[in-house]
Specification:
Layout (H helix, E strand, L loop, with lengths): L1 E6 L2 E6 L8 H68 L2
Antiparallel strand pairs: 1-2
Length: 93
């Protein structure tokens, strides 16, 4: 069954299979419901964005500490090698 149905400002031709055309109040109700749901999603994304920035800042601080410790480890290793060579040389005297 097909026909012309008034929806909004004009006529829309649609094929019906034992269904009725959604009326405008129902469409507006769904539109408002979806708008509210989108606002909730946007709020959650805003909180997530803030959390991600905090996480990124923390990761950057940790990386800085690890890089500094790695540099200290390299310097300490070289210094230990130098001291061991000095000790070996002194023991051989």
């Amino acid at each position: 069954m097909s026909g012309l149905f008034l929806c909004g400002d004009g006529y829309v031709k649609m094929k019906l299979l034992n269904k009725t055309c959604m009326n405008e109040p129902k469409i507006y109700e769904k539109l408002l419901e979806h708008d509210e749901r989108l606002q909730v999603v946007e709020e959650k994304l805003g909180h997530l964005d803030g959390s991600m920035r905090t996480l990124q800042n923390s990761a950057d601080k940790i990386l800085h500490i690890v890089e500094r410790l790695d540099q200290e480890r390299i310097v300490t290793s070289h210094r230990i090698d130098s001291v061991e060579h000095t000790v070996a040389r002194l023991e051989g005297v």
